[in-house]
């Protein structure tokens, strides 16, 4: 068996993640013919077929392919850790930090406050990704993630988590509708969000009253629907209290849900200057806006 190098592994991963030669080519800035030829060379070196190709061009890993993919991902993670660690030897907080968070956190909280940290660190760049999916921190799809729950524990400890705050929820309507708020229907989440605690609270409450004809899948859409006068919305106070045109309804008899906001990052990155600067900024930002909850210390967890 001939030795293989990192470029060989990059082609294996590109085909696995893209699912076709064409998609792999786009990710590596090469044409499909080149990807096919390189994969054939890798398979010859390894002495094993790594993928089955269907009639429509779709590529599915063989058993040998699954093994090769797992090892390629491990090498990718180690190379990413080496690059990040060397980049962090500079004491200045310079360079790009990629943060993923729910869209409302990005749009309503981080972007308005980003000038604070950028003015303190002139060489710092923020890439803010409004996405509720769990992007893979191990594969460096993001450097940091903000999530509305602590991720379930898994078998690795390459990601650390810090609870930033606890978010209180409240009920909001358009300010023009405050007088007849109790007559408005409840704005609800769609079925893809039904497992979330605040979505369950809305669904249960709407069953006793009346649900709106509109269902949404994220908080920003709830804000816009409430502003349009389409119903009552359950929102985090850190969001709802800062939207012009919304009025909060005080319903003291209700026990409203709360959510924890967690910061996640790869364990190898947390001592790098730019990562540490952004983590400190995030902690100060949410402690200032939700002061009642003091965060826990870093807690190693497994999360992909």
Task: Write structural notes for this entry.
There is one protein chain. The protein is of the alpha/beta class and 304 residues long. Helix 2 crosses helix 3 (32-46). It folds into two domains: 6-87, Arc Repressor Mutant, subunit A (Orthogonal Bundle); 99-304, D-Maltodextrin-Binding Protein, domain 2, CATH 3.40.190. The longest helix has 25 residues, at 63-87. The chain has helices at residues 6-18, 21-28, 32-46, 63-87, 103-120, 197-208, 219-227, 237-240, 273-289, and strands spanning 51-53, 59-61, 95-101, 124-130, 144-147, 159-174, 186-189, 211-216, 233-236, 246-249, 258-266, 299-301. The strands form three sheets. Strands 3, 4, 5, 6, 9, 10, 11 and 12 form an eight-stranded mixed beta sheet that branches. A two-stranded antiparallel sheet has the order 1-2. It has a two-stranded parallel sheet with strand order 7-8. The chain is built from nine helices and twelve strands. The protein is 40% helix and 23% strand.
- The CATH C-level name of the largest domain is Alpha Beta
Secondary structure category:
alpha/beta
Q: Strand content of the residues, in percent?
A: 15-25%
| Terminus-to-terminus distance | 32 Å
Radius of gyration: 23 Å
Question: In the CATH scheme, what's the topology name of the largest domain?
Answer: D-Maltodextrin-Binding Protein, domain 2
Instruction: Characterize the biggest β-sheet.
Output: 8 strands, mixed
Based on DSSP secondary structure assignment, what is the total number of beta strands? 12
The number of helical elements comes to: 9
Q: Helix proportion of residues, in percent? A: 25-40%
Task: Indicate how many domains the architecture comprises.
Answer: 2
Q: Element order, helices and strands?
A: HHHEEHEHEEEEHEHEHEEHE
* Dominant shape: globular
| Unreliable parts | 300-304
User: On the 0-100 scale, what is the average pLDDT?
Assistant: 82
CATH-derived architecture of the largest domain: 3-Layer(aba) Sandwich
């Amino acid at each position: 068996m001939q030795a293989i190098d990192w470029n060989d592994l990059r082609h294996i991963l590109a085909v696995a993640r893209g699912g076709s030669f064409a998609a792999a080519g786009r990710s590596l800035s090469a044409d499909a013919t080149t990807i096919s030829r390189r994969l054939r060379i890798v398979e010859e070196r390894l002495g094993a077929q790594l993928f089955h190709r269907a009639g429509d061009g779709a590529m599915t890993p063989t058993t040998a392919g699954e093994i090769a993919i797992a090892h390629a991902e491990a090498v990718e993670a180690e190379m990413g850790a080496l690059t990040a660690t060397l980049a962090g030897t500079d004491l200045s907080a310079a360079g790009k930090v990629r943060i993923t968070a729910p869209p409302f956190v990005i749009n309503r909280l981080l972007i308005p406050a980003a000038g604070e940290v950028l003015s303190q660190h002139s060489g710092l760049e923020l890439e803010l990704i409004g996405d509720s999916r769990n992007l893979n921190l191990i594969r460096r799809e993001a450097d940091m993630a903000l999530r509305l729950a602590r991720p379930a524990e898994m078998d690795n400890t390459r990601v650390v988590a810090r609870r930033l705050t606890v978010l209180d929820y409240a009920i909001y309507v358009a300010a023009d509708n405050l007088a007849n708020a109790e007559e408005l229907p409840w704005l609800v989440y769609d079925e893809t969000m039904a497992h979330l605690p605040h979505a369950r609270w809305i669904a249960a409450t709407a069953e006793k009253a009346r649900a709106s004809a509109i269902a949404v899948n994220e908080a920003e859409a709830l804000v816009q629907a409430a502003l349009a006068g389409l119903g009552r919305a359950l929102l985090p106070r850190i969001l709802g209290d800062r939207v012009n045109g919304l009025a909060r309804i005080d319903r003291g008899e209700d026990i409203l849900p709360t959510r924890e906001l967690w910061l996640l990052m790869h364990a190898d990155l947390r001592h790098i200057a730019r990562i540490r600067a952004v983590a400190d900024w995030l902690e100060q930002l949410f402690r200032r806006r939700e002061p009642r909850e003091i965060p826990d210390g870093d807690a190693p967890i497994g999360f992909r």
